[in-house]
Amino acid sequence: AGAETVKRAVQLDAASRFQESLVCYQEGIDLLLQVVKATTDEAKKTRYRQKISEYMSRAEDIKKHIEKEKQDGKYHKQIRIEENAIGFGYEKLFHEYLTEIVSEVWVEDPYIRQLYNFLRFCEMLVKGPCKVKTIHLLTSYDEGSGRSQQMSVLEEIKQSLSNYGVTLNIDFSSSIHDREIRFNNGWMIKIGRGLDYFKRPQGRFSIGYCDLDLRPCHETTVDIFHTKHTKKM
């Protein structure tokens, strides 16, 4: 298993898919270290250790390369969520980028209609480990009779967030088209379907209704960037 994992790491490395190759290198190294512990043949141990040393050196070079890309504002990672895939709740998707220095978040999405999803996103921000103080939402008005309910729900979310010391600023635009989420630590996440990439649950008491990690998803692409400065609305 260790050999197959590092083989995959080398293939990804050659394809310049550095973030994915780094994960495979790290997993492969851990597996090979377990093999070394279980091996009694000293000659084999020596060969394994030599290979592990080479992989560790390459993994360290990739880490430095990724860090430089972040500093230069050139970092890009893409995640493909397949149709009906599960395990892509907000915490799994965003947690890595919500560092303790995050205090301000921008959400730009013209078609936020499943407001429970936006509420769940806000709950994740409140739980931390980030120290969010301000959330900016830019969206469009719901059409027809749904507008009054939209305004009522957003106002309720705003009031609830204020109980946790978080300010929600809401703006509306009829001309926005892009969907993106930005944190003031430099991370930017673009989701093809915005926050509403989950399928509706079969019922209020079906698995996945409460836990988004167990909710099937629509097919979509997530692009993650790191920039030196995030623009403000």
Automatic annotation (TrEMBL):
InterPro entries of this UniProt entry? MIT_dom, MIT_dom_sf, MIT_domain_contain_protein1, MITD1_C, MITD1_C_sf, MITD1_N
Which SMART domains does the annotation name? Answer: MIT (SM00745)
- Looking at the record's lineage, which domain of life comes first? Eukaryota
Q: Which SUPFAM superfamilies match?
A: MIT domain
For this protein, the record's CDD domains field holds: MIT_1, MIT_C
What Gene3D superfamilies does the record tag this protein with?
MITD, C-terminal phospholipase D-like domain, Phosphotransferase system, lactose/cellobiose-type IIA subunit
Domain MIT residue range list: 1-71
Q: What is this protein called?
A: MITD1 protein
- Which species expresses this protein natively? Dasyornis broadbenti (rufous bristle-bird)
